[in-house]
Design the sequence.
């Protein structure tokens, strides 16, 4: 007997038949004697349908109202699952963000959780019921509805698991775990049984779409084990846990890529203090995240070329802001490039192995791929390349670091 | 400058174009300087779509979860209208039942409002904003979502108007007012400019589908003037107000009918105390409303035939309960009839005019309509007749009481 948080994504509850299937899985677990909180996304396609409705109505829909609108998707799925569970004789109760008190900040459409109440769910558990919780949504201190951004239900689930002290947070999705790279691109991709929070964090933020980055941050902070599994099969699964001595420390655990990148370059800006601040404060004010930044100073030290990347989604808004600021920085020209992608290698073993980055650059140049920007952390190396070379690059790196063979890795021996 | 509550029904917000139309009407009023709370129903067809979804999932959907599900319809429409208003430069804010604190009892799917908070809306008014309120929904003391039954948004609007001390509660719908009878049945139907709460109450409860009965009770109790108007035209309208000396007291103001009636008869029940209680307590426990009741005692005074009507919707459930109780009452037989309807005349003038009922019976018998049951109140007479005679009966009564001529009425002179 334990406390389990399960999260089912949109494809897992995409039809009434699939909702019944989820109900059967939850019922089975319930009958084992576990206390279960189930977190749901909206039925597949529903959030997009609602966003389209808003965009057809308004050129610039108010973000507070957008959250009121799109949070209905999860309200529908939780009520339906609670009905389906009751049909199976499992007492269940749907709960919305305001009923649980999932408090967030005021950043509509990408809010961050600041606190989660436990009283309501504990009462539901004490009554012997399954708590069916609407993911993705939160509520501000002023009782306004917020949403947590794409994939936000992952974060709802992990946050709930953290406050409930759950034994595990199970994320059910349409893939059976985390792979060494995208199996759609590379047929040698191998499922990982275990991965550390830090690696998963890098994988998530670098574009492996299995978990929302924020959910992994939460899991790491509160030490919540996350098990990623398929809704449609009992096999497989990848466990994300704290890195420990026993853990096999792969030099490179996975290759990721992200096509949702765009590059903006300011040519010939004056090289004086405050230039970067002017640009990046302007972007931050509009909630635009900047990923990589590179600055080259001219030989005479007076002018610099400044390049940075944002998501393709934010590209137009970012270009507008940069064009507006460019004159006061003396920039000669502003250019943009949306045909780029980011390709990365991730692995905790990099901490203790030199030469991993250069091996990556070599491998890419071997097949004629030019590297435009580079960024590194303790456990990852990312390169911006031409978008058309993504598949080639991923396969080349997968082979170079021998990721198809468990336990064997370049430079490890 | 005043406080106005406007309510728009499902057909008024049935498409994005219609929502933009409502936004224009609200904007115009806002620019006059009024403080406006707009109450909305779900977009036409949405509530039914959600109910169908639940019924496809489950043979007997849990009523608490049904309310969580169907209350999303209003959440969608209020968010969209708030967006549309902002596009017109009108600051607006959607508000749900839990944000306002529209408290109800726990009777899911037909809850009754017990209290409405004013703080939130007053804050919205003080900020110079339009409050766009989700109708139909409420919240229990335990923070469970409830809904108020078909037409519940009318009651939301009137309750809000009452607590806000609004000058008027305007109900916008697809007809331009309250008529002497259904214009679809009788082409001589005439729109009423004014009607008293008591008459409107009888009209509403007798089947004229313009307003939810409960909303008129609220309006009468708190003396809120209700103006029923068309969303799609600036003309017409019927004002429901307190009966006063100046008011023209029509003997008969309107003819109504209700096809949603079914009759259940217990033959030969023992005529002893407690028989009626056994039956009607059983029905009340299942939230089944009984309308008319008739009991005929046999010549020897030992046995009675008991007939009563319920809605067609409740008929099957009611038959089940009655069949179960019948043996202990010694009933010989239980019969049911779903091909009946109720036809009624309503008018405050009846209080001071004799002979109105008999004139009604005469008029119906004149065209060969048999009367199965009769019930009267101070200001109405209702007859249960064969459903197939509804149109004929309505037209006959309309002519008998000369309702096509304003101010002129049978027996008035």
Sequence:
């Amino acid at each position: 007997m334990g406390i389990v948080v399960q999260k089912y994504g949109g494809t897992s509850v995409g039809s009434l038949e699939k909702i019944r299937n989820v109900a059967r899985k939850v019922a089975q677990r319930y009958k084992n004697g576990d206390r279960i909180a189930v977190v749901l996304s909206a039925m597949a396609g529903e959030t997009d349908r609602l966003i389209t409705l808003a965009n057809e109505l308004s050129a610039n829909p108010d973000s507070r109202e957008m959250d009121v609108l799109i949070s209905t998707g999860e309200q529908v799925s939780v009520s339906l699952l609670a009905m389906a569970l009751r049909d199976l004789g499992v007492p269940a109760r749907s709960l919305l963000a305001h009923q649980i008190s999932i408090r967030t900040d005021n950043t509509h459409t990408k809010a961050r959780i600041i606190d989660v109440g436990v009283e309501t769910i504990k009462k539901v558990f004490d009554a012997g019921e399954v708590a069916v919780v609407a993911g993705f949504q939160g509520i501000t201190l002023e009782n306004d509805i917020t949403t947590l951004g794409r994939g936000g239900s992952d974060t709802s689930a992990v946050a709930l698991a953290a406050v409930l002290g759950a034994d595990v947070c199970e994320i059910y999705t349409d893939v059976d775990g985390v792979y060494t790279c995208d199996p759609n691109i590379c047929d040698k991709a191998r499922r990982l049984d275990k991965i550390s929070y830090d690696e998963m964090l890098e994988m998530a933020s670098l574009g492996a779409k299995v978990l929302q980055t924020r959910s992994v941050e939460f899991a790491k902070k509160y030490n919540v084990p996350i098990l990623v599994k398929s809704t449609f099969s009992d096999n497989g699964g990848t466990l994300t846990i704290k890195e420990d001595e026993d853990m096999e420390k792969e030099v490179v655990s996975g290759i990721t890529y992200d096509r949702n990148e765009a590059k903006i370059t300011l040519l010939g800006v004056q090289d004086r203090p405050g230039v970067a601040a002017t640009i990046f404060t302007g972007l931050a004010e509009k909630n635009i995240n900047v990923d990589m930044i590179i600055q080259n100073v001219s030989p005479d030290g007076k002018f610099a070329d400044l390049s940075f990347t944002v998501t393709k989604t934010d590209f137009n808004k970012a270009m507008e802001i940069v064009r507006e600021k460019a004159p006061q920085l003396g920039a000669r020209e502003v250019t943009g490039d949306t045909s780029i992608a980011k390709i990365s290698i991730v692995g905790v073993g990099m901490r203790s192995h030199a030469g991993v980055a250069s091996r990556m650059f070599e491998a890419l140049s071997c097949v004629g791929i030019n590297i435009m920007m580079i960024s590194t952390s303790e456990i990852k190396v990312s390169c911006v390349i031409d978008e058309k070379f993504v598949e080639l690059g991923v396969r080349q790196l997968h082979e170079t670091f021998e990721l198809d063979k468990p336990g064997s890795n370049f430079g490890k021996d």
Q: What stands out?
A: The interface with chain B takes residues 16, 19-20, 50, 53-54, 56-62, 64-66, 68-69, 71-72, 75-76, 78-80, 82-84, 86-87, 93-94, 96, 98-99, 143-145 of chain A (CB under 8 Å).
